[in-house]
Each structure stands twice: as structure tokens, then as C-alpha cells.
Amino acid sequence: MSTGALTIDLDALAANWRALDAMTGCETGAVVKANGYGLGAGRVARKLAEAGARRFFVAVAEEGAAVRRAVGPEAEIYVFAGHMEGDARRLSEAGLIPMLNSIDQLARHMEALPGHPFGIQLDTGMNRLGFEWADWAEAAPIALDNGPLWLMSHLACADEPDHEMNAYQLDIFRQMTDGLGVPRSLSATGGILLGPDYHFDMTRPGIGLYGGLPFEDAQAVVRLDLPVVQCRDLVAGEVVGYGNSWQADRPSRIATISGGYADGLLRSLSGKATFWHGDTPCPLVGRVSMDLITVDVTDLEGDPAYLTLLGPHQGVDSLARDAGTIGYEVLTSLGRRYVRLENPA
User: Fold this and answer.
1) What is this structure's pTM?
2) What Å distances lie between residue 173 and 132, 169, 194, 199, 245, CA to CA?
């Protein structure tokens, strides 16, 4: 191979969905935005539909078409950004359901697509998307008369179970929705783990499906192997890469591998990340460049054909810690040049 191979374990993906679903007594949806967290929205949604998911969530209407092709006409596909200017045709043709976020969006939807399904998103303190308290008080009679499918909000600090914001948002959500007779949803992966008070009528896990924290029991979904382009010997004192940022303190064997920040391997991994050859760790040396990375393979018995960055010894969150970021960014940054393989095929 001349580029990296990204292997996607669809059975692990489905197992993670089933495990999260088993934690609740309600329906479990699935968030497949950002092209299925970088893994391919079509293949991800299709597998989750086979596992039992019936409601899917994307960020913007443009993402919905691929999901619709994958899951067929019966599944419901919701758009977090709501009904944006110019979305009417796309929403209608793909059968997408906007989660309306404001009085302006409500008016736009009622005018452009009367009778078309919609949901309502409420702001309970995150100050990102959704009707604020006063706007909801004004809009609720009109919205409720037109039959929203769901009332939703989103937790800001669910990955911190003891954070006081969780209970605060739960209380606000109840105040804004109790007694309205509309199904409700508050929790993504972190909210599921907070317990049944946060589950309501549907949860909508995202990162936990793909093997990331805060779902510590998740099965790994991705493996990334990168091919070795060339190996060379260095004497002690020689340097590697841009800026002479690494210097050999012993005779060393250096492998140059195909991959770099153009492939989503963040430059902040320079001098920090570890690759693996079987059970043997191989440190990244020098800087991550656009297309190439250099790795110290001195302790291997021979030159490897490829090295593993994501695999049994290192998951997305471990790599994220080395990069000073989060697993979400690692996953969604995985580059287009990788050959994406499905396991099982």
C-alpha cells in the first residue's frame, strides 16, 4: 500500500450501540454527523440500522442525503442545525427532519414546508443552539399546535459526572418541557452514563459508538496502519526532519512512513506519539510534516512494512492525549487519502 489503511470494525460499532442501548429503558438513536465521525456516514448508518437504530442525527442538511441512501425511507434523520436559509428543497427531497432552534427558523419552516415534520431544540444553559427561555415561551403555542416530533437539549458537561451543570440543565429542561406531551431527548453518550434521570424517551449517542470516552467499556472501532516508504541508518549525532528537532544519541535505524498532518495526524504529535510493530513500541522522532513521519525502529529485528498508530495498544483517546486534544478531533481528522477497509469485509 502507498497510503495508510484505516480499518473500521463494524461489528464493534454495532456492539457499542447495543451496549449503550442496554443501559437505558428508552429508544436509542445514533449520531452520524461529520461523515460518521470520519468513518463514512453511509457504512456507519447502515450497520447501526442493522443493529436496530431507527433515528439518526446529522449536523447540517447537506450531510443527510448519504445517510438516507444508506438507511432507506423508513428511518428518521434529524438535522441539528435546523432549517437554514435555502434548505427547504434538500429537507423535502431527502425526508430530513430539522431540529428548529429559533423563532426565525420556526417561521421559515412553517412558511416553506407546511406540514413537514420537525423537532424543537431548547437551550438549557449551553448557549450554543436552541430556543432560549423567553423565545420558547413566545413560540411554544405555535410550535406545539404544529406537532413537533421531539423536544431536545444538549448537556455541556456530561463527561464530568459530578459537574453541577448537569443537574442544573436537567432541571431547566424539565421546567421547559414537563407536561407538554411531546417525546423528549437530552442525552448523548455522557448523558447515558449519568443514569436514568437523564434518559427521557430517547438517547442519541455519538462518540461512544466509535470507541471513544467517556464510554470506557467501548470496543475499539478503528485501526490505522501506515506504510514504510524508506529506512536509513544514522550515526550518533545525526539529526532528523525539519528544524533538526531530534538528534540520535546512538546508532539508529529510522523509518520514514507515509502519512502526515495532511492526513489528520496532528502536528502536535511531533516527538510525542508512539507507533507499534506488533507488541514493540516505536517512538515518533522529529516533526510531523505534511506527508511524512519519521519513526525510530532501531529496536526491531528487521525493517517493518508498516507501523500501527491506532490499534490494540493505542486507541483514539490515548493518541489524543499525546496530541493535547480529544478523541473526537482525532477521529474526525482522519484523512481522505487512507484506504478505508471494513472488518468484517
Assistant:
1) 0.95
2) 11, 6, 15, 12, 52
